[in-house]
């Protein structure tokens, strides 16, 4: 065996003593290099790393489709048929929003209110139509 064969294998590095940092490339675990026992974190540092990107944010809630349809039909009214559908869709949407935790409660309420306004106007028009045809006007 020659002298060169012994140089192929790395020689063990001496362990640092006290608060002296280890030489570059050594395999001393973090924390032990500054005199702290293995497994303990330095003072003031949490036992875990920083949270991953986006951690802690809830995904956005979806908007109930029937609530959107209720509000649109309440606005458009389609010769009072839209008002009836706005009421039906609005009440069903309110129930689904409570059960599923979705968004759109305000749109469902707007559809219900506009639906009742449309139904009220329909009743008034029908009453005036009946009164005019019977001669009470």
Key terms for this structure?
4 helices; rod-shaped; 137 residues
Overview of this protein structure:
The protein has helices at residues 3-6, 65-76, 81-100, 105-134. It is mainly α and 137 residues long. It is 48% helix and 0% strand. Helix 2 runs antiparallel to helix 3 (81-100) and helix 3 (81-100) runs antiparallel to helix 4. It is built from 4 helices and no strands. The mean pLDDT is 79.
Short structural summary:
By secondary structure, the protein is mostly helical. The protein has helices at residues 3-6, 65-76, 81-100, 105-134.
Oligomer: single chain
Question: What percent of residues are in strands?
Answer: under 5%
- How would you spell out the order of helices and strands? HHHH
Count of DSSP H/I helices: 4
Task: List the SSEs and their pairings.
Layout: H1 3-6, H2 65-76, H3 81-100, H4 105-134
Helix pairs in contact: 2-3, 2-4, 3-4
């Amino acid at each position: 065996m020659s002298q060169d064969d012994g140089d192929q294998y790395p020689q063990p590095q001496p362990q640092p003593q006290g608060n002296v940092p280890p030489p570059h490339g050594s395999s001393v675990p973090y924390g032990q290099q500054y005199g702290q026992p293995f497994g303990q974190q330095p003072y003031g540092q949490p036992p875990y790393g920083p949270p991953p990107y986006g951690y802690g944010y809830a995904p956005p809630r979806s908007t109930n489709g029937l609530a959107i349809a209720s509000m649109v039909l309440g606005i458009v009214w389609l010769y009072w048929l839209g008002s009836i559908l706005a009421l039906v869709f609005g009440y069903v949407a309110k129930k689904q929003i409570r059960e599923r935790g979705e968004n759109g409660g305000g749109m469902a309420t707007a559809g219900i209110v506009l639906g009742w306004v449309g139904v009220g106007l329909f009743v008034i028009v029908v009453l005036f139509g009946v009164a005019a045809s019977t001669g009470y006007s």
